[in-house]
Amino acid sequence: MCIHPDVAGQADRDKIDIMCREMTSNFIKKSSSSSSSSSSAGRCSFFEQYDELIGSRYNNDIESSANGQKKKFAIPSGVYTLEDLRVAGGAEGWCPYYMTKRLLRHADVIVFNYQYVLDPRVSASALIAGEASRGAMSHGALAKEGEERPAALAIDSDEEQQFEPAVVIFDEAHNIDDICMDALTVTVDRKTIERATSNVKRLQREVTELKKVDEARLKAEVENLMRGLAPASGMSEEDESIGALKFGPQELKNAVSGVSHLVIPGNVRQAEHFLGILQQVCAFLRAYIRVDKARAEGPLMFLHELESQQYIEARTMKAFDARLRSLMNTLKITDIDEFSPLTKICDLCTLASLHSKGFAVLTDPCPEAEGIYDPQLELSCLDAAIAMRPVVRRYKNVVLTSGTLSPLSMYPKLLGLDRVVVSEALDISLERDCIRPLIVTRSNDIVLSSSFQSRKDEEVSKCYGTLLEELVQVVPDGVVCFFTSKVFMQQVVRVWYDSGTLARLSTHKVVFFETDDVVSTTIALSNYREACDQGRDDGRLSVRYHASIEYYYVQGLIGKDEKAHAEGMWRSVESLMSEGREFEAFRSAEAMQEYLQSAAGHPFLYDTRQWGDTFNNIYSAAMEKYFARADVAAALHTGGVKWQNGDGTASPNPVVMNLQKELMKPVLKEVQTVLSAAIPTMIYTGVFDGSSCGHLSVMGALHMLGYEPFETASRELWEGPNHPFGFVQSGGALTFVWVSNSGHMVPTDQPEAALDMMDRFIHNRSLAGKNELPWRPAADVEKIQL
């Protein structure tokens, strides 16, 4: 969400985070203010404006707090996307990232993914509903069963917990149990352990350097930890959220004067001692992960081995996460992402020490593939209720919805929902009859079934792949393939990859997969939406052929080299058009389209050039009969010659030749006369073969009454019942239509679009928008065609 020009321009996300912290952290601000004015130039002006609007509420400096009062700031009511807030921040001059985090506490409705509620790593940094809820969320997310949920700092521990008056809706929650378990699962490998060891060494160097220049800061941290208070690091609330406490140790809570405090054990209060223990843990994990066969054991056995070898008590490890955060705040570390390996190690130790049940420690020597040794250690959460429990204890109303929550009686047990009020399966009704099921039971001698008995049969998976291949070749629109489970999907996709099915599918469709990884799925979903938008706009893009190059490139159909070559061809088309050489421009545009289709492997939904002859053969008999009629031959002046399949370029066609002689004469004068008389006129063209270059050139030369309204009219989407047909521009008496995915033989390339176009034009209905009227009976269709 960053809008700072120097930061947002960075390609690496980690670099963006580091630069942001360097320009916004409070301890950086203090250093800048105490030095020359030139050194303060590194501060982010957008964050400064945000800070000025909100006020120095979290400034630990007493004098600054006394003088700086919190200022009221209100953003207009409305619905805001992240992009809307970026635009507003750029216009008003405040940081959209920090403003969004502040607005989360005051918003009436917040829409985000499950991780902001279920994953303690994410929920701590979201800062939803203020400090008290933040503390409860971060600590309570990992409280053991039967334990009291720890209160936030400075909250009376004897006070009865009150539910927050909010409604949490988990939509499409059929996989919520997997998400709950994934949120509390930690995976490390040898690379993670080695990088964590490097992190420890760097922190040791930082501590040594700090001792030389500001040892008092380390002593102050130890005193704060002894009192059970958060370290006075000079960081704002936003800074603290970067490394916010994610796994709060319940047993470390001591009641002092009715206030709950988190007290760090004595053997990890000194920074040197804590880092020494972390080195021992990394050494233990380095040896523990070296296995020859898969191993599974409980957290207690894992902790027992660690304690017997390194003499580190489990109660000490419960404080690892809190202690690491405190130390990094004290050392004023800004590149926190560099310490993610060490953070993972601390998370693993804290989780394992907090939970004796509901977790398992899994070690796999070959996690990726058999024979490839790359051992991996995973602390796997096996109980979804652990992550869900703090949610149902915090919020009064929690709703789960999905079309596939079955059986309903299973989910309360999986998620530990002990006070279910309503559990109901609703009937689903469709507004219109839009489902046309095609039931396939077998392929040759193999029964197609997704039953448990057949799921490991590779032949069944291959037959499903063959069925999908045949479908995508004839279905022009998108195809969604559902699997009965993610495990089954992984098995089938592996078979499809080995057999080449995926490669063949990719020649016809852009393929997207849903994965367990939230980031990957989010990126895939974004690309899928962009592909849908590009496909929906292909008529408009093909009108300007340079934009159609972007269409190929964005969908991943061509690479950068092919894109550059096509752009060079388009510049040639533009040059020819500017010189008035329309015919040569037409041929050049056609050549560019041929090049793009060839480079992309002919993957289009309606690739008329790949199956045009086959398609025409279907109509050939009907067209031959139609053109043989005496009245048709007389009206078209074809002399009764026999129709032949082809358009005059693929094969000789006497009908086309006669039509050329009669109709393809200079008609500019006649067109101007017709349009000047305000007679409704429609010109249409397919966008595949470049012919619209000539049409646009001709229309640019028209000078008749009423042309100005057409020239200034906007180009609008023309939609059919099921998918977009193209684009239309209407003004005065003239309507110009671009038909998507079609050559100039629109009736044969896109018969459905041609019928819709003629139906609307004859009945004086606009082509802009969607045709909501039902298709006409067969008798009417025949009349329209005639």
Automatic annotation (TrEMBL):
Q: Which GO terms describe its biological process?
A: nucleotide-excision repair; positive regulation of mitotic recombination; proteolysis; transcription by RNA polymerase II
**Alphabetized UniProt keyword annotations:** 4Fe-4S, ATP-binding, DNA damage, DNA repair, DNA-binding, Helicase, Hydrolase, Iron, Iron-sulfur, Metal-binding, Nucleotide-binding
This chain is encoded by the gene named ERCC2_1
Coiled-coil region:
none
Q: GO MF annotations for this entry?
A: 4 iron, 4 sulfur cluster binding; 5'-3' DNA helicase activity; ATP binding; damaged DNA binding; hydrolase activity, acting on acid anhydrides, in phosphorus-containing anhydrides; serine-type carboxypeptidase activity
Give the protein's recorded name: DNA 5'-3' helicase
Say which domain of life the source belongs to.
Eukaryota
Reaction(s) catalysed by this chain's protein: ATP + H2O = ADP + phosphate + H(+)
Native species: Perkinsus olseni
